[in-house]
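Exercise: predict the fold of this chain.
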Amino acid sequence: MLGTMTTGAATRQPGLPWHATHRPHDAVSRFLAHHWVDPLPPEGEPPKGYSALEASLAPESCGQCHRQQYEDWRTSLHSHAVGPGLLWQFHILSQAQANSCMRCHAPLAEQKALAALEFHWPNTPSSPPPAYVGRRLFRQGLVCAACHVRRHRRFGPPPPPGMPPGNTPGLPHGGFTASAAFQDSRFCATCHQSPADGRSLDGKPFENTYAEWRASRFARAGVTCQSCHMPKRRHLWRGIHDPAMVRSGLRITLTVTRINNGTADARAVIHSVAIGHDFPTYLVPKVYVMLYALGPDAHDVREIARHVIGRSVNLQLTHEYFDSRIPPGGKSVLATRLELSPSQPKMVELRIEVAPGAHYERLFGHELGHQGRYDKATVMILRQALAETRATRYQLIRLVVPVPATPGDSRHAVAN
């Protein structure tokens, strides 16, 4: 979901996925070419002998046995992939455009059928959903079955040591087929990498996370997407929305150096030390880095420097204003000279704030400014989308360093 309605759907573009063009003859690519065929076919009738629980595509059914995975998934953005930010567009998009969005947000054929019923699209199923398709399945986003179920067969990574093989007789739903693809970054590239012929701007794909990782030292060292975003196979997928995850990938330093009696230098360095792709990846988030001079009075605070880390484009997705993202291992530096006086400043403060949905804040705000083009139901969803997106903002870090009294002296503070 990306862009404005003047440029059409905010969607993933059709084309060959990354894994179909990169090493196409190895086992993982062959598996993924079938596993992520677009569009996914319907599951069909469950095998005879399946219980209602085994046949169900609902994530809560999976959670009856896979409790930890289900509870993790519920806290992840995957479980919120169909929310107000997407749904307001479905009130005005065509069915084909919406299906393109659902390629990643809700990819099961059964989810698309439920969406067609909800939005009264032309190609609406003539019969009600079968029992194994929960009525909430579309609204539940990227569900367990989207990654793990095809034609009612289960697929997953090779079992850990001590666990029975997937083809052990007597396992529920006939066991599962193990594939190393579930431990390979190319599995994630299906949605986190624009295809070779997808939309781009200034020669850079809109979604380029896998390519950024592949060019990094992390790929060479065998540190996959799953290594960081699914530690110990946890279904967490933490990222830019999670302060702890972001802090763990950065080393942030604030240094203040006294130059002479009248001036001092302030320097903030944000070093990407454990992030396997550009920080932040994608063009939606923004990271705001600000330096403040603090006087002796608690209210004596003034901003002395500001920098934005991110990729900024216009709402029509036709012009890039800047791209200041930090590549893996790279740094971003914000430095300024500070004029001193007898009364102030006494300290320098660094604040870093993260807006995970900055582009969408602009987009939703813009559309609300033209709400006359939408019906009341769409406007209500759009307002909810804006409120929810703004609520994801957070303060990542605050560092305060005193201004040294002696020329030539430096003081510094380090986070992580």
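Check your answer against the key: Residues 376-390 form the longest helix (15 residues).
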